[in-house]
Specification:
By secondary structure, the chain is α/β, with parallel strands linked by helices. It has helices at 11-36, 51-58, 74-79, 84-91, 125-139, 157-168, 188-191, 198-202, 216-231, 262-269, 272-282, 288-311, and strands at residues 66-68, 145-149, 173-179, 182-183, 186-187, 208-212, 237-242. The longest helix is centred in the first third of the chain and has 26 residues, at 11-36.
Length: 328
Amino acid sequence: MAASNPFPLSKEALLACYRTMRTIREFEDRLHVDFSRGDIPGFVHLYAGEEASAVGILTHLGDGDRIASTHRGHGHCIAKGVDVVEMMKEIYGKKGGCGNGKGGSMHIADLSKGMMGANGILGAGAPLICGAALAAKFRKKNEVGICFVGDGASNQGTFLESLNLAAVWNLPVIFVVENNGYAESTSRDYATAVNSYVDRASGFGIPGITVDGTDFLAVYEAAGEVIKRAREGGGPSLLECKMVRFHGHFEGDAQTYRAPGEIEDVRVNHDCLKKFSAHVVSAGVISSDELAAIDKTVLALIEDSVQQAKAAPLPTLADLTTDVYVNY
């Protein structure tokens, strides 16, 4: 007889969430390898290690809900449903990419999925998501906006001003601080005056929750609470996800600012995919073989996306002046 399911998601939903987290991990790990080979142009910031945050939060959203991302946006894109092949083509600078190869890693967007874009300007997504949330409020479709920021962006004036604006206008928006401990190479303990980002929210009369960002189920439940509140007219919230990143701030980062053994400890003891697997397998809800089958499928997907990206044509000179303006 099958074990009873103690989780807030069905077995099928848990498998889907694992697939998305694994897709993010393999996508990022492949970029790590291909960038080091010199195959990828531009700059790349990897999300590996932080998958439980993106998937735990965005699983609650539909295409009508909007998100604003960061320079470390691949995981948010995949969790929001952006096509992996189109993303890979974009990162390779090829036609057929999300921006036809002209935006690259930090400018992936897909408005059809509610993905307003990754953003290379720290904190720039916060005022954008206030606009999206204001539009959602007027449309009265119970849609929400999610803004992701990191440790560095949390200290930007645009972020703090957006907290105030969201509170004053009672917007259906959730500000997610993905606290991986570093603003680029600067420890948050050195450059941030508060012990918890929730303290920032309280200064604007906004409720906040701190959660273990490496625990998918904890993130999922906390996100569900604040998203439900926003949909029902309860206004903005702040969700702090304490997490880890496996790679450096950017590809090529020597990470000399990290303590000896820190990276090894992070991978062994704070891997959100390992935690997820351990939870569902030990509960008897999902087997190791089922997870391994997903791993195999995802690896094939990522390999296919890379091959398609390499084979795709480059933008031409004529493409230089297209997609510059939007006609409303």
